[in-house]
Design goal:
6-stranded mixed sheet, 10 strands, 24% strand
């Protein structure tokens, strides 16, 4: 655990230094802007978020008004991690589950450094590990132990149930960072509902072999979630094309949902180092907060 914490802290410090240098000290804004309390009303200005319009007051005919907010000092950050069997793809030590856990660990340390409350929800098709939000270094270690030390109860996926569980558990507006490969169907409605209630970040972890299977002839493919093996012929060009097309269309579908619902999207591959994509995430959120 000590070696793991040292590794995660090296990443976190590296990211903080780069972003601080590039954004003149505005690094902390990745964990700000979501934990807000209603403060007052003011007239609508061009560029204001339409979601902040106070329709009841505006309907009285004296102009369009938006709500203003003040920062909530008890900012909460939740990590919502999909730890189902489909995450267990990739090279040893660089599987999707490994990358997802590293990202969650680094961001946990960053959130603790910022003084945020940090909580954890690990999910398969059922709740796996729940740690309610808390502050300070001890909470950071507790979260990281919960991320890296947990053994799965189930290997199956149910993103709909995962998002519904989070909707029921997290009552106060928070930053919710979802880490998943998003390989599932029918999760869109609760995912959008989560974005309406909270400041949502979607981190999609992928592996190159999901979009380009090597041509190996007839091979056994083991479905860890279902616990069964299927034989497929990878030599067929139509099969390879279908795999690639499905991967691309599903990823674009997720990106479209995120764009329409003001969800920060980050795609990261198991072949990538996590530092550069996380720096981009921090910079994008910084720009979003400044526009807000």
């Amino acid at each position: 655990m000590n070696e793991l914490l040292k590794k995660l802290r090296r990443y976190e410090i590296m990211i903080r230094k780069v972003v601080n240098n590039q954004l003149q000290g505005d690094y902390q804004s990745i964990f700000k802007g979501a934990g807000l309390e209603f403060d007052d009303l003011r007239p609508y200005q061009y560029g204001d978020d339409f979601r902040t319009i106070e329709w009841k007051v505006s309907a009285k005919g004296h102009g369009t008004f938006v709500k203003t907010f003040r920062e909530d000092k008890d900012q909460s950050v939740y990590f919502l991690i999909d730890i189902s069997g489909s995450q267990d793809i990739g090279q040893e030590g660089k599987k999707k589950i490994d990358i997802g856990k590293e990202i969650a660990g680094v961001l946990t340390l960053a959130a603790v450094f910022e003084g945020s409350q940090v909580g954890l929800i690990s999910y398969s098709d059922q709740k796996e590990k729940i740690i309610l939000p808390g502050k300070g270094p001890k909470q950071g270690v507790k979260i990281i132990q919960g991320i890296f030390g947990h053994k799965n109860i189930s290997q199956k996926t149910n993103l709909t149930e995962m998002f519904n569980f989070a909707l029921n558990l997290i009552k106060k507006r928070s930053i919710v960072i979802v880490i998943s490969d998003f390989i599932d169907e029918g999760y869109e409605r609760p995912f959008k509902a989560l974005a309406q209630r909270h400041d949502l970040v979607a981190v999609q972890v992928t592996d190159p072999r999901e979009s380009a299977l090597p041509t190996l002839g007839i091979i056994p493919v083991y479905d860890k979630e279902e616990g069964r093996t299927t034989w497929v012929n990878t030599a067929f060009g139509s099969f390879s094309k279908k795999i690639a097309d499905t991967f691309t269309s599903e990823r674009e579908h997720l990106k479209t949902i995120c764009k329409k619902n003001q969800i920060n999207y980050l795609g990261i591959s198991t072949k990538d180092d996590i530092v550069i994509p996380l720096i981009e995430l921090f910079k994008n959120r910084n720009r979003t907060m400044k526009r807000g």
